[in-house]
Design goal:
CATH architecture of the largest domain: Up-down Bundle
Number of strands: 10
CATH topology of the largest domain: Na+/H+ antiporter like fold
Number of domains: 3
Distance between the termini: 82 Å
Helix content: 55-70%
């Protein structure tokens, strides 16, 4: 039939529009919608598409593009930063899953080769589904998100060797000689890619960029990706390996971000075809014929992967709660397992019936991923709450080796990301006592060697906060990316020390009210602060005077934070005079040499008349004078404590600066 391929694509994408919209309203990821689209349109159901060959060919392009973009996104610097999670976490998870599934396969009477191949299929998780769900939930930077990412990176790197090894597992290869030949070819291609990335690729891009043609730039990217994949296929390696290597070559160039941005639309379109094609291969009759077998297989996959991954994470020293969250997020079968299963079917490692059962179980595990993420927190809390702290706290020797240091009137920093690191650096410079609580054992080890006062543990456990002397602390700053954990830590901190001042950094304004309900004193939403910073930078580019910019920023802050403070006041548990100070802030300023305020007496009322702020106390050397007399004359080096609104403090601050 003329234009048959075009007709098939129109049918598939039209059906996908309806299905994906329906599934997204049911809070399922779009990938599940694509799989169901394939099942409905395929030859085993409504039979809209009878010849799946052309769709499968386009789906193979989707796999090539996925590996190509993974290669572009792959950063050697990022790999080095989380190398322990990647190499040890990912390595142990893949090896132990293969061994465990192989043992189960052998127990049920399958041959050793088949059982090991089952392990290959089960070891991989879905990068496409999990990354989208974690990004949408804002949990990519959370400890369990980073753990999952590290393991996924290793799994993605394992795809190519597993695909290369599958024919040998089936007995198609010619022994060790062919293994060595393939390895030598792969090494040669990697070596060529390394030198291409350093010399050839940058030179090609330089010539193309000079033309200022976006079309030519996109064609160059496609040429490099598909050309490398074709060359690797010609020398006996896989298309996937070539695509990944081409992506790596581009990733080290200065044009990698633009290349990735241009490729993502192509990748998304062809990857949707890949998942649709997988759905088309599934015969729904297998669900009717083997419902208990498929259900048992789904349950077994989730349980085995969760137990092994959580065990691996705890072996690395992570607290049990984070280990369980990461494990449940990785409990599904990955998209590359479908590619591997087709290779296994071709080489006789799977029968047609076994292949159909595997497809049904795999699609079900993918569909259950949002549910697994939803129940992860309650499950982790339930398990951790019923076990002794010594079992759940994480790496034993790090926690046991902590020397208790007497602390009082100090700051507790929860999380040692960028926010926590910057705060600790300034507090250290100002000689303000502080202690950091961090869940990453490798970060703890590295920072301890640098002299940082950091302890290992999960701050949502009372034993860890008591170890940080929370009962004597003045301030707690919660600077982590896990909203649920932040709420638990804030509630526990308020319970253990009702007088502590709790500051929480959060990502979205929607997370503010639940935190204030728990008794948090201040919430800093990054979403709001980012908007203020963007406003400031835009105005600077238009050469708007600095004082006008500061007034605009003050107005935005006043309006925005007044809304946040009204939320705070609704849920405030404070009593007494604190209620009268709502909306006011306290700031300290140092009298600079040559400033407007130097040598002036308080009787002149300069601070009050120029800014509206009130002087509460003055510190000169070791002497602190509260409510100073009007005859007091300010000198260079005096530290003055002021009370006022945010804009009043900003105006007062200019009086303390050296006159230019």
């Amino acid at each position: 039939m003329e234009y048959a391929a075009l007709q098939d694509l129109a049918i598939l994408f039209g059906l996908a529009l309806v299905t994906v919209i329906l599934f997204q309203r049911l809070l399922f990821p779009s990938i599940i919608g694509f799989l169901v689209t394939g099942i409905l349109a395929g030859p085993y159901a409504l039979a809209f598409i009878k010849d799946t060959h052309q769709v499968e060919q386009m789906a193979e392009i989707g796999v090539v593009l996925l590996l190509f973009t993974i290669g572009i996104e792959f950063s050697l610097k990022e790999l080095l930063r989380i190398r322990h999670l990647v190499l040890w976490g990912g390595g142990l998870q893949v090896v132990l899953t293969i061994l465990a599934v192989a043992a189960l396969g052998a127990f049920f009477g399958y041959s050793a080769r088949q059982a090991v191949f089952f392990g290959f299929l089960a070891a991989l998780s879905s990068t496409a589904i999990l990354m989208k769900l974690l990004v949408d939930a804002g949990e990519m930077d959370a400890p369990h998100g980073k753990t999952a990412l590290g393991i996924l990176i290793f799994q993605d790197l394992c795809v190519v060797p597993l695909m290369l090894f599958t024919p040998f597992l089936a007995g198609v290869g010619e022994g060790m000689g062919e293994v060595l030949l393939v390895s030598a070819k792969a090494a040669a291609v990697l070596l060529a890619a390394h030198y291409s990335a350093r010399f050839l690729v940058p030179w090609i891009f330089q010539q193309v960029v000079r033309t200022r043609s976006r079309e030519l730039f996109i064609l160059t990217i496609i040429f490099i990706g598909f050309g490398t994949a074709w060359i690797t296929a010609k020398v006996g390696l896989s298309l996937a390996l070539g695509a990944f290597i081409a992506g790596l070559a581009i990733s080290e160039s200065e044009y990698s971000h633009q290349a990735l941005g241009d490729m993502i639309p192509f990748r998304e379109a062809f990857m949707s075809l890949f998942f649709i094609s997988v759905g088309m291969l599934l015969d729904p009759a297998v669900l009717v014929k083997y419902p208990l077998l498929v259900a048992s297989l789904v349950l077994a996959i989730i349980l085995v992967k969760t137990l092994i991954t959580s065990g691996v994470a705890m072996t690395l020293g992570l607290p049990m709660r984070i280990a369980i969250l990461a494990a449940l997020s990785l409990a599904q079968i990955g998209e590359f397992s479908f590619v591997l299963s087709q290779t296994g079917l071709k080489h006789g490692l799977l029968s047609e019936e076994m292949y159909q059962i595997f497809l049904a179980a795999s699609i079900a595990t993918m569909g259950l991923t949002p549910f697994c993420l939803k129940i992860a927190n309650p499950v982790a809390d339930f398990i951790v709450g019923r076990l002794p702290h010594s079992w759940t706290r994480g790496r034993g020797f790090l926690a046991a080796g902590e020397k208790k240091v007497a602390l009082s009137d100090h700051v507790i920093i929860v999380g040692f990301g960028e926010n926590g690191k910057n705060l600790a650096k300034v507090l250290k410079y100002l000689k303000i006592a502080h202690v950091v609580i961090e869940t990453n054992p490798f970060t703890v080890s590295a920072e301890k060697k640098k002299g940082e006062h950091i302890i290992f543990g999960d701050a949502s456990k009372p034993e860890v906060l008591e170890h940080a002397h929370i009962e004597n602390a003045r301030i707690m700053v919660i600077a982590i990316s896990d909203a649920a954990a932040s709420r638990r830590i804030a509630a526990l901190a308020r319970q253990l020390n009702p007088m502590i001042h709790v500051i929480v950094r959060t990502r979205y304004i929607l997370e503010v009210e639940p935190l204030y309900r728990l008794g948090v004193n201040e919430v800093i939403p990054e979403e709001f602060e980012t908007s203020v910073e963007i406003l400031s930078r835009v105005l600077k580019k238009f050469l708007v005077p600095q004082d006008v910019i500061e007034n605009c920023v003050a107005d935005v802050r006043r309006d925005g934070y007044e809304m946040l403070r009204s939320v705070s006041r609704r849920h405030s548990h404070a009593v007494g005079i604190a209620g009268f100070l709502a909306g006011a802030e306290i700031g300290t300023f140092t009298v600079q040499k040559g400033s407007s305020i130097e040598g002036r007496s308080l009787r002149e009322g300069l601070v009050r008349s120029r800014s509206g702020a009130t002087i509460l106390a003055i510190k000169r050397g070791a002497e602190v004078v509260a409510n100073p007399d009007p005859v007091w004359e300010l000198r260079h080096g005096d530290i003055v404590l002021l009370l006022g609104a945010k804009e009043q403090l900003a105006a007062a601050g200019r009086l303390f600066e050296t006159l230019k």
